[in-house]
TrEMBL record:
Taxon lineage: Bacteria, Pseudomonadati, Bacteroidota, Sphingobacteriia, Sphingobacteriales
Domain HTH araC/xylS-type intervals: 189-287
Keywords per UniProt: DNA-binding, Transcription, Transcription regulation
Entry annotated with the keyword DNA-binding: yes
Pfam family, one: HTH_18
Protein name per the record: AraC family transcriptional regulator
Molecular functions (GO terms): DNA-binding transcription factor activity; sequence-specific DNA binding
Coiled coil: none
PANTHER family, per the entry: ARAC-FAMILY TRANSCRIPTIONAL REGULATOR, TRANSCRIPTIONAL REGULATORY PROTEIN
InterPro entries reported for this sequence: AraC-bd, Homeodomain-like_sf, HTH-like, HTH_AraC, RmlC-like_jellyroll
Length: 290
């Protein structure tokens, strides 16, 4: 197993200085074809420094995202949020398009949509959709090399936003559209977006209710109708997911992880972890590291 550090690694996607956009098309017969330094980066669980969009044009990829294993077969796509921890475990005869964009280059409305669809799973594509995505990404790749064009960055940014929108549209097609959301679903969506930004510092349902200008009982009602679980459940689950990530992917002590997640009371955190997962933090780390 690749060695771990104090923190989960963040892989920087290669781009031109100041661009905030990276796009490439790569091909490998199998995972052993990658040079050793790059192979370690791929196989070691990591985050990316930006929003990542992958279009699998050929072959098969085994990928693990936040403890969930997926097998992707071409043609397929996947969006990975910067917060998600992932690693590639195997692939065969792969040709893949990779697009990375930071927050500054993505349109605000797309950022909001990406937040709502995360965590996303791989999606298989029909031939027509795959063709359109390939054409969009091909244009982006061509524009990368046209650095002497007037408005070069604007052209690149807008074309990449169009490609990102095509990815987003595939996920949106599976979900209830915003104008059809019930009141309960809308409030649950707003709560989940707040939770993603504040789970480390805010653990009280009342704080989320106040932020949404509604009462705590009503927030609980909406979230429970939409998901089957109360607000406190989702807060605990989000905290524990991050704890699992750090236990598995870093060498931080349980006490350090508790502090990172906003728990000054270390014994309380250990009891919470055991209550939610059915095992202790130490046992979870030992079991998963084999």
């Amino acid at each position: 197993m690749p060695k771990k550090g104090q923190q989960i690694p963040v892989n920087v996607m290669a781009d031109e200085p100041g661009e905030g956009i990276a796009i490439e098309k790569i091909a490998f017969a199998n995972i052993e074809d990658i040079i050793p330094a790059a192979l370690e980066a791929v196989k070691l669980a990591h985050r990316h420094d930006r929003h990542s969009f992958f279009l699998l044009a050929n072959g098969k990829v085994d990928i693990e995202i936040d403890f969930e294993a997926y097998i992707m077969g071409a043609p397929a796509l996947i969006y990975i949020h910067p917060d998600q921890v992932h690693r590639t475990t195997a692939f065969e005869d792969v040709v893949v398009w990779s697009l990375g964009m930071d927050n500054e280059n993505l349109r605000p409305e797309y950022l909001a949509l990406l937040q709502s669809i995360s965590p996303a799973k791989p999606l298989s594509l029909d031939a027509d959709t795959y063709s359109v995505l390939t054409e969009a990404l091909s244009l982006c790749l061509k524009l990368v090399g046209r650095k002497t064009d007037r408005l070069h960055h604007a052209l690149l940014r807008d074309s990449c936003n169009a490609a990102a929108a095509l990815f987003i549209s595939q996920y949106a097609a599976l979900a209830t559209t915003a104008d059809k959301l019930s009141r309960h679903e809308g409030i649950n969506k707003a709560f989940r977006e707040l939770l993603e930004k504040n789970y480390r510092t805010e653990k009280r349902p009342a704080w989320y209710a106040d932020s949404l200008n509604i009462s705590t009982p009503y927030l609980n009602e909406c979230v429970k109708v939409a998901t089957g679980q109360p607000v406190s459940y989702h807060i605990q689950q989000r905290v524990i997911l991050e704890a699992k990530r750090l236990l598995y992917h870093s060498t931080n002590s349980v006490k350090q992880i508790a502090a990172h997640l906003g728990y000054d009371d270390y014994p309380y955190f250990t009891r919470l972890f055991a209550k939610v997962t059915g095992t202790t933090a130490i046992a979870f780390r030992s079991k998963n590291l084999g």
